[in-house]
Design goal:
The complex is a heterodimer of chains A (332) and B (281). With 332 residues, chain A is an all-alpha fold. Chain A contains 10 helices and 2 strands; from the N terminus they run αββααααααααα. Chain A starts with a helix and ends in a 9-residue tail after the last helix. Classes of the chains: A mainly alpha (332), B alpha/beta (281).
Chain lengths: 332, 281
Amino acid sequence: MSTTTSIDDNSEPKIEWLDSVIDFVMTAAKNLAIPLSGIAVFLFLWTIAAQNINTSLGEFPSPSVVLEQFESLYDEHNAEREKEVAFYERQEVRNAKRVAEDPGYAPRIRAYTGKETFLDQIGTSLITVMSGFILAAALAIPLGIAIGLSKTLNQAINPVIQIFKPVSPLAWLPLVTMVVSAVYVSPDPLVAKSFLNSMITVTLCCIWPMVINTSVGVSSIDKDLVNVSQVLRLPALKHVQKIVLPASIPAIFTGMRLSLGVAWMVLIAAEMLAQSPGLGKFVWDEFQNGSSDSLGRIMAAVVVIGFIGFMLDRVMLEIQRVVSWDKSSVLR
Amino acid sequence: MSTLLDISQIDMVFPTPKGPFTALKGVDLKIAEGEFVSLIGHSGCGKSTVLNVVAGLHQATTGGVILNGKEVKEPGPERAVVFQNHSLLPWLTAYENVELAVDQVFGRGKSKAEKKEWIEHNLTLVHMDHAMHKRPDEISGGMKQRVGIARALAMQPDVLLMDEPFGALDALTRAHMQDSLMEIQNELNNTVIMITHDVDEAVLLSDRIVMMTNGPAATIGEILDVNLERPRDRLALAEDPEYIHLRSSVLRFLYEKQRKVEVMPTGKSSKAKPQKKSAAA
């Protein structure tokens, strides 16, 4: 008995160890191979299709052209940065000279007003979408909780929500623009009007999914938990804090993820229409520019827009994973 | 013994789309301090409705409940409820679930250290001290129910209301829980109203068994005094003639006098129903 086991002991662990490694490699390969081959097929079809579409600006950009454009966009960005550094250096040198000649002179630094690069536009768009989204969340979640708790309030507000929910951002934009330029009058504005326009448009469009999901989550809390709260005579604020908020976290996050997706789409459209800085403006400018590179650059922007939208959703998912107690609801 | 809780001539009428439905009619019961009373009856007879009225979660249409000389108008911690499906907050650990109740009931009346000791004391009482810091989804059904009982006990209620507390548990776990409850009762001698559909459970635990007639317009059919010596032991009692007699009286009431006639569900109280169904399953 003991001899057989000792033989087994010597031989089995080795095989098991090897097996587990092979298993791991196989599953990893499988998990990677399928998505990768999907992408490969897509790129192939794209290349074929691109060769057969001719526009007045030349052939439709193939993946390789887009890749080239990414490189040139990055180079342009670096060149622009170098110019900026050089601009400030020149100013400093000039100012130092003047101060040396005339000690009473107060040196002035003029801001660099060069063209915004592709990377700058990405940054602007990201900041705008996050500001608009956070403002929307700050309004929508308390409103959603209030509506979810009170049937009366729900009946009162629901028609308004249902009517404004399907409104396209493009319809809001002229109104927002006019209101902002009428109301936001300041000689030394903290933020640009164009930023406010885009941000408020984003807020107006992405507030609704959050309001609706939050209110549904709040109103569908387990009756037993509400009974517990009643037996304990929790005051209203504590009831919200201890019972309502944690119980509806999954629903709130569903709403937030939907909203963030809407926000990102709305922003690009709003930037295109309003010519306010951002990726949308980049796309529009390239379209108006009409050079032989334009389509490739627009396609590069499209890829970036898609990728950022995907990343925003992933980030939201990770936040939910950290915040939520219900680990089972956060799978996709 | 003086009356602690007076359930006085309760009628309960629910409005339904098909007109008013009378769930309870003239339910009248006086309960003394330290008494353990079981409510037993067929599914849908309105046992839970009685309990909810005492808890203050439902308002009786006519009649009322008086506890300690005061009318019951709303839910409150002096009438702590142990719900059938534990109703623990899933995002809090066992300890935190009890803590929420203790913080709310004692507020500034107890220091932080006193509260901690009181929470741990109650969790130890239900034998949950080893898993205090686990969350409900990490413990078994029986353990969840233990925490639910600890939470209710920690409120130091005047009356402990239990709504089929062991209904969702398997038979062995249920027996364990009944023994634990008897042990706790020996120590604390709480006033308890427990709803059950289990005849053995009712006889084993109660001082009095209140048997309810079938609805609609359910009311108290008979009341049975259980004068078995405490502490009770389920094995010894199994052959005790008194126990067997009590058990068969309850059975006779339920299956001869109040035989459940399966009728089509017309205009039944939809509020009380879902709970009953899961209890039967």
